[in-house]
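Note to self: the last two entries modelled the partners one at a time, which told us nothing about the interface. This time every component goes in together.
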Amino acid sequence: MKVNTTINGMKRILDVKPDEYLLDTLRRHNYLSVRRGCDTTSCGVCTILIDDKPVPSCAFLSVRAEGKRITTVEGIPKEAEKLSEHFGATGADQCGFCNPGIALSVYALKKSQKKVTAETLKHYLTGHLCRCTGYQSQHKAIKEYLGDSNE
Amino acid sequence: MSKNYKTVNVKTPSIDGKGIMMGRPAYTEDLAPKDALVIKVLRSPHAFAKIESIDTQKASELPGVEIVLTHKDFKRNAYTRAGQGYPEPSPHDKFPLDNYVRYVGDEVAAVAAVDEETALEALDLIEVEYKKLTPVLDFEKAKENESIIHPEEDIYEMFPIGFDPKKNVAAAYSMEVGDVEKTLKESDVVVEDSFYTQAQAHVMLEPHTVNAQIDYQDRLVLYSATQTPFHVRRILSQTLEIPLSKIRVIKPRVGGGFGGKQALHGEMLAAAVTKRTGKPSKLTYTRKEVFESSCTRHPMRIDMKIGATKDGKITGIDCYGLSDTGAYGEHALTVFMVTGSKVLPLYNKVDSVRFHGDVVYTNTVSSGAYRGYGAIQGNYALESIVDMLAEKLNMDPMELRQKNMILENETSPIFEIMGEGTEGTAMNMDSCKLDYCVKRGMELIDYKNKYPRRKTDGAKVRSIGGAIAMQGSGIPYIDMGAAIIKLNDDGFYNLMVGATEIGQGSDTILAQIAAEQLGVDVSKVVVYSSDTDLTPFDPGAYASSTTYVSGNAVLKAAKEMRSMVVKEAARSLEVDIDDIEFDGTTFRVKNQEDTLSLSDLSNRLYYNEDQKQLVATGSYYGTKSPPPFMAGFVEVEVDLETGEYDILEYVSVVDCGTTINPELARGQVEGGIVQGLGMAVTEDVHYAKNGKLISSDMLNYKIPTNLTLKKLTTEFADSYEESGPYGAKSVGEIGIDTPPAAIANAVYNATGVRIKTLPVTPEKILKGLKEKEI
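The predicted structure of the combined assembly is written out below.
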């Protein structure tokens, strides 16, 4: 089946199977920052943006991407770089397997200009599991990154 | 101890954080050839069975299937997946594939096909006839059970470890200092109890992954998400009978390990598929396979008996352990010994101490290495019973600890008696700031005002619990790490290390150590790890060894490189070596104007005069294993009506010597604390009656999330370990040890309910509260 999408600003026609999930489609097309961690939409490492909203791609059928704008971390290099500087400053980057998914979620938050408190930020990020950091260093870095949109 | 360092102990961001955040291909699966065969494994539906027959014909005939492997395709070479040094202290009790299956999820057959769909379809076509056997699922009934899990004759121990498979015993150990029974009999106060710990899962976010291919030199090349590339190479060579020189193992970026990737998982089958077919293959575990078919922490029962005088001198500790190694004996003895060796020396002033017990087989998921192995189990038992003893003595538990715990310049006879699988190494605590850690931790948590409990609103009570812990820094006289430093033109260096970066930041801290010694910015040290062809040997990322062992190797190599460049500068400037002053970038001749830059020298050595390639190497093995120490305190708020509790703050004060990279060291401690909290609070393991693991996905097995705790406070003691690189000890494991005991102690202080089986769940607390009412 053919699906018309825009990936990271580029129009693409994807050839997909009817039962295929976007995670597999994207990896097959070399968007390798999109990763499989759990199969149960629990961990967040497969997060992508669909029309600027974070979505677990392991549970999003590729055929549903018709007409949608897909963003992976490869599509926001400047924002990812900025976030990585804050992660570096707080020691929040360990294995990094979860980082691209987090980058997309917090970028979407920043873009939405929604105001968040420390507590609402924690709730916003519950879909991103990290087994390395204990989370606190990530929170610090993300708050710095959000800058103005942070209360 | 304040030293004037330029890069060590200075805030330095990870050298690889940017590329990783930007999603550049780096992990094993990212690097798989596009045409790689996809390997899928048929796994046992039975906890214990003999394969009577296995018919693969239909599967083999399915279009797109390249090969189907069963036990009939392998020579029976017993091995252990443990991923340890050689000779291995774990029993060789596993075969690449076997005609017995010993737990639900054990390997039966493997299919390699053109795509995943075909491979999965082929699995369904394999016809297996099982003869079901009676599984042993309760580890307390395993020893001398009439059902023998390993009846085969061709399995063995490499040296005496107490291996007695006919009794379902994978390993056994016993040691005693003094006469503990006599000591306890004569003690004024004695407390005893049994504690149970569960089979914690690692849940590293990158599942076990391996790719294999044959290169143009006809060698087998594996990319593996492993913590131990050199051990993987050796074990594959010995088991599949491929010459060592014909195998190359490359460890790309690894998405977390925590001990789970010390062992071999998919490597054996991927190597076998590619060796036989000549085609590239890949094997990526599903999350279910990671839970069900890799390994977990060893569940244990620990019986603790502790005695003291009336005035609170701990006189003796008697510790019996029963450890459940599951279907295979990976790390059976070593984990068990650590339960004694990295726990009992905390109270070194005892008259006598005993540690003994068995490690038994069961028909459950195999146990293996997991961060803090053995220590966290022992710590939970010991640090719970010390609080119980304090109560009986009517003494503050931290005061009891301060009175009895190990201090700087002291030792314990246990260090000499117990190593990891072998005898230990005597050592003094040349750096031990545990007393400071306890004192500072009490200040930070406001112990004076908050211990033991305060009523808040309604049915809620806030309380404090604490525990102390120790670890090690590598395995002395056994694990050797090495480094190579190469000078390039334009005056920058390559640092090649076998030390295995798995996300903990070892590439960064090793670059810092080299940069400090060479007097250059970290950006001038380009790190590469690890590749059995290109980097020197290192045992890998385990046993809290990288900073101390590999770090010392890097320091030695950097010192040698420094003296090499000074020698070449002296030759170039035509002066004596002693007349050269070198700041890392410029050579100056004493009392003269003459200078030479490192960049010019390196270009000269490459292209102009006295041409040569400068390469320095360093190797190091510990002659001791200086322990990092810590004190951990937790404040919880318990709802007495529901048993639910919130974790308000966890305070850690850690002595790991110099922190080479303060932020990354904090990351190791905080990450460890939260993993330990997972084991203490939410990570429950459930098996069905038939031995099938129920908690085999992230919905049923709950690791900590962003909401698990409110606040982490982490500080480091001012400490300097003379034998470590720039005063450093290791810090990878110490963080994980204290949470189970600290949580159990805090919950007891809030409720009067002592939870002796992990995790400490609201249900158990509520049950305890109800029982108290009766």
